Amino acid sequence: xxxxxxxxxxxxxxxxxxNILLIRFLGxxxxxxxxxxxxxxxxxxMAVIFVTVMACSISWAVYTYLLIPxxxxxxxxxxxxxxxxxxxxxxxxxxxxxxxxLYKAFGIYLPLITTNCxxxxxxxxxxxxxxxxxxxxxxxxxxxxxxxxxxxxxxxxRERIDVSPIPAGFKGVPIALISAGLxxxxxxxxxxxxxx
Amino acid sequence: MSAQHKLVDTKSFTSGLWKMNPILxxxxxxxxxxxxxxxxxxxxxxxxxxxxxxxxxxxxxxxIRRVVPSHVRIPVxxxxxATFVTTVDYSLTAFSPQLHKNLGVYLPLMVVNxxxxxxxxxxxxxxxxxxxxxxxxxxxxxxxxAIFVISAIRELLGQGTFMGLNVLGRNYTPFIIMLMPPGAxxxxxxxxxxxxxxxxxxxxxxx
Amino acid sequence: MKKTEIFTGITVMFxxxxxxxxxxxxVFKITRVQIEKQKKIEAERLxxxxxxxxxxxxxxxxxxxxxxxxxxxxxxxxxMIFEISRSGYGGPIVIKVGIDNNLQVKGVRILxxxxxxxxxxxITDNKFLNQFIGKTGNELSLRKYHSEGxxxxxxGATISSKAVTEGIVEMIEKxxxxxxxxxxxxxxxxxxxxNKKMGKSQKGxxx
Lengths: 196, 207, 207
Hints:
The complex is a heterotrimer. By secondary structure, chain B is mostly helical. Chain B has eight helices and two strands; from the N terminus they run αααααααββα.
């Protein structure tokens, strides 16, 4: 099954075929909140890549070397969310100190990255697929890169939509949802691109 | 949210249903909403799980709100929510394995559902137990109503069925795209547009 | 931040985490029994559905092939149940298939899949799965590819249908080549049962 496939396929599968935003519907809160302009979407995308890869590697190690040997797998959810929350805190301090402009752009969304389902989902899915450490690394990189890719694409699209004449009732969120639907339709075409 | 000073305020319950509906107005908690809304049965299961966790977490947090120092409140809230979510997760595996399988990874992901943490932070940490319970119930119900409507539309158009029962007859050609991910976005978009138009009309009438 | 504040913070956090861990351990303990029971019931239900006359279902391994051997009231093997995994369109499809001693299919169930809802997901419908019943290896092929084929693929889901069909055919051919079905059932009985049986048959000869 998935275990025997090579790293490239794992990456591609997480990146486009099962895109976390458009096919798996995860991380949508920040997706609609932050995709108003390209600049902040790039920042958020990068932050998500960084946190996802690091936090998921840590939680993978915690699960494999702590939870399994002590037979306390039922603490999985609590432990993972804790690992992620502490990591986000750490990243927040760094960005605040070194890139204040970016920190301003994120506003309330940076603390919310804790509740960004992308990260926790990547951690869960990596465990569910029984990946090795390296596979898990590539997988989480694929997922978060997929997030970044789509949110930037979507933000550029929304900048165009904002200046287009659309029916009053559809302004704002509804038209964003419908465009996301059309994008999702396009991404559906990647399914069956290769066999896992 | 003017429930601060009253012991029991019905507004804590009703505001979640339409005006402040977590989905249609606040636009949070979208992930499970879109992901498990292709069949009405699963959607209702998800709705009940959300009501349970939201009410439970709200009550617990309201109970301990005076003991928890503010600088550790978020991690404490998250641990409490995660405890409730894991309980639901294991109970469902035990008593309804099929539903558990259908909800998949979206069930444990309820931990990071913005509705739940959002209500804990914005409401339960500032209000008494009864109002917090009512707020949890109201918001949970608002979520359930929204996911029910979306799943009903998707299942009806996508399979011609409702709760697995054939409604539209044998000759109905299913609109399969509705069952797939794009369908969720489209239905949701049109629903919000509908809500916006209704409110716009209401405002015009007032003027 | 004062030292006492940090201290209370840590104490509260620690207490909450401890309580949560304890509660979850209890939940896990209670539900585990039920989860195991459910799994067993579900597996037995599927086995019984394929082989209503089966009495004992023994997990067996022969020549590197593990399967469930179905025994009737007289402890004769009347069939075998296999679990196979095969890549479909959206990921692995896990198939449970029962065959009798003549290598004819007794029943097929899809345990897990990730096919497109509304299209590939229809491989779980009885309409598709019942086509396999009563047929053996060389009769099983998609009508689309072989004029003598007996299986109609699900509309719009040739890859999924092909995966299921090929998985079953391959499995049957493997069983045929390993000659497991015709091997005496006594191979798979535990030692003492075998002895008892030998004793009985000797008695039979004496009579």
